Amino acid sequence: MSKIDTTNAALPRRGFIRKAAAGLGAAALGGLAAKDTNAAKVERHWDLTADVVVIGSGAAGLPASIAAAEEGASVLVIEQNFDIGGHAIESGGNVALGGGTSLQKKYGITDTPDRMFEDLASWHDYRFSDREIIRAFCDESVATFDFLLKHGVQFPDKSPGGADGGPQNVKRSQTVIWTGEVSAYSPTGGNGTALMRPLEAATKKLGVKILLRHSMTGLIREDQFSGKVLGVTATHEGKTLNIQARKGVILSTGGHTSNVNFRRIFDPRLTEEYQVVGEPYSRQSGDGEIAAMQVGASIWGAGSQTVETQARSHIFEKPYVIGNQYGYPQGGGKRNENIKDSPVKGLARAIGLQVSDYQNLIQVNQAGQRFVNELATGFDWWNPCLELNGGKGEGGGPIWAIFDADAVKREGWTCAPPFVDPDGWFFTGNTLRELAGKIVCKYQKQPMPGAALEETIARYNSFVAKGKDEDFGKPLPMHKIQTPPFYAAWSTPCIHDCLSGLRINGKAQVIDLWGKAVPGLYCAGETAGGFNQHGLARSLTFGRIAGREAAKSAAHS
Ligand SMILES: Cc1cc2nc3c(=O)[nH]c(=O)nc-3n(C[C@H](O)[C@H](O)[C@H](O)COP(=O)(O)OP(=O)(O)OC[C@H]3O[C@@H](n4cnc5c(N)ncnc54)[C@H](O)[C@@H]3O)c2cc1C
């Protein structure tokens, strides 16, 4: 295997190398610095050199680096965070791979790549996907499962569960098991640690170098819209590095949902109040997409990011917990003991309150009005939150759960830190009017009118008395909101998945605006569009494909 060269190697003589040029207003899009967006000759040296340079060390990045190293390439991983893993290390670790895996076979589940393709290609969610991508996923699914086993990921010895939909409804999902016990440091306590730490160990064993706290800021291509991608620029502690990729660059930066300007390209309703699951540990920066667009790459599957298309995929989620910023449990994960040293522990500020029964609260918009049946899930809840409710109330904007002292008793909640965050996400009042006046949050653009909140509660209480929700059809509304103190907890939907991104083909090559593969540029995971599938399985699989294909390609001089 060739080694990573950390000397200042000379740039190839071909010369006339331009940094990624913009014309796309990238400075306004976030992440990338304005200076990186102007066409300019880069300095005539490389600070680092490897065959394959992988950007991001999450569910796509680590398999990419392992697969490339296994093909004999030298590999360098650039990761902007202080630790590896991205969203994947925080994930539930449920991996939907099929097509005839050893676990499926062991438990008598008949599956083949063809069967899997038939299921996925004819299922409504996947109508938003490229069939070439679905096919590659199905063909590579068993190999990805074997790859995970080979590199130390363990699955429980039991039948895969959770049928995948489609005409044959084959069971294809399995959850990784925690094997390393507490020795495996976990930044947020997520089960995905059991997936990512073994992959990290495999990466290191193969001699791959992971540069933490290094942020990719742009791509270096022979010319802006033509020629081969030669490397990347990255920043580390205020310094800019030029990093050469002799064979290819793999963008696996995890998608763009944390970048409000960028995500609103796909759906203008995805305004800033919607928090992103996975933060504050890991941000979906959009950096990969922007860098690739600057060299002519095409964005793909934009419609997949609108909430209406998500039947099963998780673009939008009802918050898992209320009363904290991120809507997901923070620091309350399964391996709580492992997060004690995590720099994110303090950033998350509150664990949040888990709602066991939505009969215990109502949800109001920023104007203090109900707009939804609070017991609803999926489409029936998301759509009203984005103002698609047949004209019956408006959900767009901050959403507050309102409840009283009786509800707190029924739920067994502790309405104090570290469970709730009184700094903008949780409020208390002795009267409803007082409560409305106290709601001060950066996303609540105008004070909630106290009279409106009083009117809403009075109307809701009258529905409880009648046993019928005449406005939104909540089945048998059960509890009046009447006993002070009253509470308002942040209960706004969060954004979970990124399903649109760069156009790729079945070999994970990035496709440009003219429909041609960009030589030397690959992409996998949530940075890629064209595959309307949730999560880890597609990221792991296309990561593997990208790593292998990049390593097998011819090196440029
Ligand atoms: C709480 C939670 C639970 C989940 N549970 C599941 C589950 O059970 N099953 C499932 O299938 N999916 C699940 N998912 C989704 C799954 O984790 C993601 O789909 C998957 O991690 C995406 O992989 P990725 O490689 O594209 O991105 P990530 O895993 O997020 O990795 C991207 C990496 O790129 C880095 N990066 C970004 N920009 C730059 C830059 N400019 N320079 C250098 N590095 C950069 C990031 O820091 C990050 O480490 C869950 C997600 C979350 C947040």
CATH fold description of the largest domain: FAD/NAD(P)-binding domain
CATH architecture title of the largest domain: 3-Layer(bba) Sandwich
Instruction: Give the domain tally.
Output: 3
Q: Provide a count of the helices.
A: 15
Question: How would you name the CATH homologous superfamily of the largest domain?
Answer: FAD/NAD(P)-binding domain
Major pleated sheet: 9 strands, mixed
Instruction: Calculate the mean pLDDT score and round it.
Output: 86
Q: What is Rg?
A: 24 Å
Strand content: 15-25%
Helix content: 10-25%
The ligands bound in this entry are: flavin-adenine dinucleotide
Broad CATH class of the largest domain: Alpha Beta
Coarse structural class: alpha+beta
Unreliable sequence segments: 1-41, 331-338
Distinctive features:
557 residues, alpha+beta, 3 domains, disordered N terminus, FAD/NAD(P)-binding domain, Flavocytochrome C3, Chain A, domain 1, nine-stranded mixed sheet, binds flavin-adenine dinucleotide, globular
Give the topology:
Layout lengths: L17 E2 L6 H4 L18 E8 L5 H10 L4 E4 L7 H5 L3 E3 L5 H5 L6 H9 L9 H20 L10 E3 L7 E5 L17 H13 L3 E3 L3 E9 L2 E11 L2 E13 L8 H4 L11 E2 L10 H8 L4 E2 L15 E2 L3 E2 L21 H5 L4 E2 L7 E3 L13 H8 L14 E5 H7 L14 E4 L2 H7 L11 H17 L19 E5 L3 E2 L5 E2 L6 E3 L5 E7 L12 H17 L5
Parallel strand pairs: 2-3, 2-10, 3-7, 10-23, 11-20
Antiparallel strand pairs: 1-8, 4-6, 5-6, 8-9, 9-10, 12-21, 13-20, 14-15, 16-17, 17-19, 18-19, 22-23
The chain binds flavin-adenine dinucleotide.
The site of flavin-adenine dinucleotide (FAD) has 39 residues, from α3, β8 and α15.
